[in-house]
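Practice problem: predict the structure.
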Amino acid sequence: MDQEAKGNGGILVTFRDMYVTLQSLVSELREVNLTMKAHGTTATDHELRIRALERWRYSLPIALLVSLGSAVAAIIAAVK
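Answer:
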């Protein structure tokens, strides 16, 4: 450690220290980037699944009304 920094109560930060810290930050940012890409893929998959369920849910009442109408028409035709 530098005597001047030690005598003044300061901290000596060398270029090597900054380089090591910067490399560590770059590595962590790469991990964060990969994690964000994975979450994006998962979110897209969930969105597609939810939309498919909504289409099925909203088409169900229409199909029910059509089938009930057909049943009523068949009953009326059978009674006559």
